[in-house]
């Protein structure tokens, strides 16, 4: 299959080829691949691409998938606008 | 394309909702989300991917994958698959110009 | 991948400073350089900072270091001879003054900056509005603007330096944590890591927020402490903010990156010193009020993620780039107080001068003894 | 300035696990805030038009969406439960504050306990053009069809033959969508055999050891290229095949949605049998962080029934901690024990092996040995699990051994050959003619002496695997009663086409009886008269 035409990260438009290149260059953690290719930085924060990349790393490096960690998840889950935050703080108890 | 009759479920189409897609007037139904209304009208491409401009449409329909992002009433990146359709909504395909300068 | 067990110098810390030092040393012909990083490269402050690149400083030497670093950023590929796009965006920094004496300070700084060919200038509130149409110029007294300041991708810069260093023979070891620095009669004999012992006589401490912990291994007390600074990133939207917006009095920095997302933060009040990098909801609340007052269109924009990193604060908020008298061949590059990324290229050159005992390329005084000599030049322009 | 609301229990997620956790805790006086991101409660349940498996005690035999309505009704009546729909938990912070986005405001809460029931998200698959519009997750197809009445396609390719892949394929047929075929990368079907048989008798092929290589189309799916895999799942060259379709449905597995969970410093571990990275927790569903519980698919992928029970266990444990009234403590403890037993029973049998193996890896190997309480008859269903069609040996097992049983009149035949926990046929038979020898995981056997051929079981069976046969209706014809859930419905005396287990037309038949009452709940029971030689092959009809 043509790796250029296989999308791993929908939010940031990253292909399987990009991911495999990075792994082969020695970036074998999702945190590194994220910083260099922006996977996991989009609105879905790694929900669709996380597992796929973990499997690629396991396949190419031989590390068992149990040892591969997904990226860190930080608040706010699903996003929140500045306005919504301010509105919440101004509600009088 | 709407399911007219179903052996298990009844789809009592709620009242009509008028909305605009890239400026064109369209009709959806009460209880529709933006994405389900568009899909029912045969509109599958909801946006373009960031870099390669590949067509993007509904994938998960439960608000997880962010593949259905559109600009709604001027607000970008709205997950249309979980946003209820409302009267008069302005929906636009969203193709983000990525600023690549210097 | 086996760890080299003998090195001429071991650099501790895989951030942008550590990699810049390793590269610049190798460029001077120093052989057998080994860099050790306990996690992945740029996993510390480098990878968590706002990554602005600014030349508008108050002290002459900071301006000098920033200008020299900007030259590297401007032709990164040729200087380091690596094919890495650092996504440099040069749409300037717009500093905002909310009092006459703050504007006066900008004026004096601009004189220093212009004397070093840094093209900064004063701007009136209206000129500021022309640069940032959505800016709320209420209460704004004036500002300073330098068109060549901007933003670079911190990960790409770090990986660029590390690639260049490897090309010159440096060994980069990720996931390698320093446990002990062995000394005999006050002389360094080697570094003990979780992956083995490296025999060396020279060590460079570029461990960012943990520099003081590394220094303790050779019982040196560095006059620095670390504190948490929080930061957030929004979703990507169409560009509405070209320059980095920054104000010391209003205490904020805010930048729209090439990708279209905003990165912003502010200097926390009464943050206890320590190594805590947890996020807080209080930060979201304060940041929201500050940011939307300054740039109203932010109201409708979604915050995607918040995180935190460590500032390594020195007494005068100036870097400490120096050898340590009591421990031969132990060098430190720390205390960047939140602006290490933007001057890392020059810091690497300076540290290479110190280690190879050559004549300083830049006329700067950043040695640790300055505190004892009382030559403390405090740098006002820090958020 | 910081208005923080102190509360007792926050439950995140309004699906089966969250609903049952809320009810379990609120029934013992705990004040619950149930937070649901969508504008409706029920989670994925509301899209499940099929009848559920499992024990009748846990709603088995009822359609998914009805179970949801039952639970949601109870929630509405319980004044201890405050429901926040269209609300999303944003953050769980170190200082135990939980921020929730509700009616456009970020509100702050300080809960004593937290139950995360955030369910699962669908796995994505790497093949060419996998981001083309028209490539859907199975949940998306169900959402469009069953929630919004929008048809996802005219002709669709189903990738994956787990229960979801099989059930969604069947629901697609009901919605009038043609299913080109179901492809499965493994050499055998993943889901229950009864679901596969339902598809095969509608003429839908199931291709094992096949995978998708490419979606074809410019702005929308117009077709797909599939290929064959060898035993180690590698592509066999030149086995590419083009499938004409205008949508591709991926149901290649769910993975726990642990995003919120991983904001805390909870320990997670990758367990392939449970769908991916799961939180470490004890048998009371509590994680390594005190008072932080998990329930449902987020704690490991299983089905809705186990999610409901896990929700009960988590809810009851919170009640035990918050409601200090000694009077209740014993009662709660008893209920927790019962729920754990129920769960263990549900996970018994060969089908539960994968889940048990996964749970064992995090130290939850349930002490009781399942296998000895089950009948240990061994029989080979490998053909069935590869094709969805029972072998002749399988069929012989369920048929009467002597000829004259057929002279007695109509008798029920169960084509359920796989041991999994399910008992609606046993519990539903008014004449106690069907038994599983006391263990829900055993195969059901019909006692032909007691069976009157009343066909109640035909509409009760969640797998539509019960049929009634009257071989000697006349000397040349037989009557076969079968379940039918499609449109148009047949009418009495109408001539229809008769299909066998592979969906091929074998003869014509005359409809003698159509039962479509309330008890049938939309599984129409059709009795058709067929030539006697086809009395054992008649499994479906096509109304002209």
UniProtKB/TrEMBL annotation, chain B:
GO molecular function terms attached to this record: 2 iron, 2 sulfur cluster binding; oxidoreductase activity
PROSITE patterns referenced in this protein's UniProt entry, alphabetically: 2FE2S_FER_1 (PS00197)
InterPro entries per the UniProt record, alphabetical: 2Fe-2S-bd_N, 2Fe-2S_ferredoxin-like_sf, 2Fe2S_fd_BS
Membrane-spanning segments: none
Lineage: superkingdom: Bacteria
Pfam families per the UniProt record, alphabetical: Fer2_4
Keywords: Oxidoreductase
Annotated protein name in UniProt: Sarcosine oxidase, alpha subunit family, heterotetrameric form
Species, as recorded: Defluviitoga tunisiensis
